[in-house]
Write a structure and sequence with these properties.
alpha/beta; Rossmann fold; Metallo-beta-lactamase, Chain A; Ubiquitin-like (UB roll); eight-stranded mixed β-sheet; 3 domains; single chain; globular
């Protein structure tokens, strides 16, 4: 990619059709896809990703939109495929830099509006609500939605028609024969589209390595029916993705079958509940209990649905595992069911919560122990079925790490797709006319929420914070005369490197080493601030390298009096 041409606006032929991902290709999350035709751009999804322990102080990662910000006059709008955070979660953070209308279906609109209120953007973002299966024009793009199934209500594949060609952008999907909530996948519409002719299919790759089919939500509900019956005299808590409305329905139905009332524990669950009921989902269920109300019921008469399935430190289950939740207490003998799979990178944080629960005598059940989860993404048989219906000329695997994209590409070739291209973020692919080809690249980076600021992921402050977290830090203050004589011993502050009982002795030794390094400089060198600072810095780093094998972040302050 680095050797390919760096593209400017004039390099995009108005008569052609291009696909340009700025996030979500080569990774799972942070989806941002651009399509170009007739001098205009269409953005499909604008989502977030989540940080890990390698980025201290950072929780949310955003795609860098600088490429399209430089072309705002040509951006027709943002089309959201569904309401997951990795597909719309960046809109509240980045919309003021884009200021274009947003198109989405009713459930996604309700969810997005609630998030916009939190950012003070209510009534500022133009949101056009499309009906399920609806059709509209966004600039030169003729848009049609096709209903699919996924782990959230109203997931949509998007048909993008232009005079240059037609694309099916699948978004996230699976083929669930009994999804519990929402419509079945519209097989007829997909087959009709295949007969009409599809230039390219840009398709979900998350489970391209998984054989068979992903399984049905109704099967999880039936499994809960049996599982809850095995724990009649104890409290049950289930943690799952808050956005999985069908899972909330399945858990609640099974709980009611065993004479348990259901409480939601966690703010994001209540946000999803409100959006669901506003759009006619979950209306066949009684209102959920609050966590305070649940505390008045006997243990065997309540079931808790909790946030925290991915080990989030501030989620409800994390606080319950440490006994710090203000309203809900889990006791020895209670049961916690993890009804979600681990997102890669979250294993440590999930393990920490599970270990905390086990130490408190609480039983844990995961997908390794019982049938408590099905994925919302297509396994290989479902991908094959989609290719048989749509029959695209070009396959573009997205929404996956490199290994997922490679497996998906191989499967597409096995399905006799004539052309297969594996994209990378920032790589512009000409889909038509002519053979599909990577024509060059544009900037595609990452931003992050750092306190109240949005900054590049590779910014100096974050790099410094990461270095300090990994290697510690030392600050040295030197006071010298203009002629280069030290007026006092160096003042040293050492952070994250010494135990309390060794601090005094090791600090005294370090001060001696720094003073010795400065004293050894020639009279001429001691007149140069840079030479003095470098001598002190090298003394600090050599000291800790020899003692601990570490090279701490070192700052030298030099004052001449």
């Amino acid at each position: 990619m680095s050797d390919s041409k760096h593209l400017t606006t004039k390099d995009f032929d108005p008569a052609a059709l291009y696909f340009l991902p700025l996030g979500g290709s080569g990774e799972i999350g942070m989806n941002l896809n651009l399509y170009h035709h007739a001098g205009k751009w269409l953005m499909v999804d604008l989502g977030v990703s989540f940080a890990d322990e390698t980025t201290p102080g950072i929780e949310i990662i955003l795609p860098d939109t600088s490429f399209i910000e430089e072309r705002l006059g040509d951006l027709a709008g943002i089309l959201v495929t569904h309401a997951h955070e990795d597909h719309l979660g960046a809109i509240p953070y980045l919309w003021e830099d884009l200021r274009v209308p947003v198109w989405c279906t009713p459930f996604a609109a309700s969810f997005l509006k609630a998030k916009l209120v939190e950012k003070g953007l209510q009534n500022k973002v133009p949101i056009h609500v499309l009906p399920l299966g609806g059709r509209s024009h966004i600039g030169p793009f003729d848009i049609e939605l096709i209903s699919l199934t996924h782990s959230i209500p109203e997931p949509n594949a998007v048909v993008i028609r232009t005079p240059a060609g037609t694309v099916l952008h699948t978004g996230d999907w699976k083929l669930d024969p009994d999804p519990v909530i929402g419509l079945l996948s519209n097989e007829t519409a997909l087959q009709n589209l295949g007969r009409e002719g599809v230039t390219a299919m840009v398709c979900d790759s998350t489970n391209a390595l998984v054989p068979g089919r992903s399984g049905s939500e109704s099967e999880v509900r039936d499994s809960f029916m049996d599982l809850f019956g095995q724990y009649k005299d104890t409290r049950i808590a289930v943690t799952c993705f808050a956005s999985n409305v069908a899972r909330l329905h399945s858990i609640t139905q099974a709980a009611h079958a065993h004479d348990r009332q259901v409480a939601l524990v966690g703010r994001s669950l209540w946000r999803i509940n409100d959006a669901a009921r506003e759009n006619g989902y979950l209306t066949d269920l009684p209102p959920f209990l609050t966590e305070k109300e649940a505390g008045f019921l006997p243990r065997e008469k309540v079931l808790l649905i909790c946030t925290g399935s991915q080990g989030e430190a501030r989620a409800a289950l994390s606080r319950m595992a440490t006994g710090e939740h203000p309203d809900v207490t889990l006791e020895r003998g209670d049961v916690v069911i993890f009804s979600a799979r681990e997102i890669p990178g979250n294993e440590k944080s999930i393990g920490k919560i599970q270990n905390g629960l086990l130490r408190r005598g609480i039983k844990i059940i995961t997908a390794d122990d019982a049938f408590v989860h099905v994925s919302g993404h297509p396994a290989r048989e479902e991908l094959v079925q989609m290719y048989q219906w749509v029959r695209p000329k070009i396959a573009i695997p997205v929404h996956g790490e490199g290994r997922h994209l490679a497996a998906h590409a191989e499967l597409a070739r096995d399905c006799q797709v004539p052309e297969v291209l594996v994209p990378e973020d920032g790589g512009a692919i000409r889909l038509a006319p002519g053979p599909a080809a990577l024509v060059g690249h544009v900037h595609a980076g990452r931003l992050c929420i750092d306190g109240k600021r949005i900054v590049p992921m590779n910014n100096h402050a974050l790099r410094g914070r990461t270095r300090m977290a990994q290697s510690g830090a030392v600050v040295v203050t030197l006071v010298m005369t203009p002629r280069g004589d030290l007026l006092a011993d160096p003042k040293v502050s050492i952070m994250g490197l010494l135990e309390e009982d060794e601090y005094e002795e090791e600090t005294a030794d370090l001060i001696s080493r720094i003073r010795g390094a400065v004293d050894q400089l020639s009279r001429t060198a001691r007149l140069e601030d840079s030479s003095v600072k470098e001598a002190a810095r090298v003394a600090v780093r050599r000291n800790f390298s020899a003692m601990q094998g570490r090279k701490p972040m070192t700052e030298i302050h030099l004052v001449r009096i």
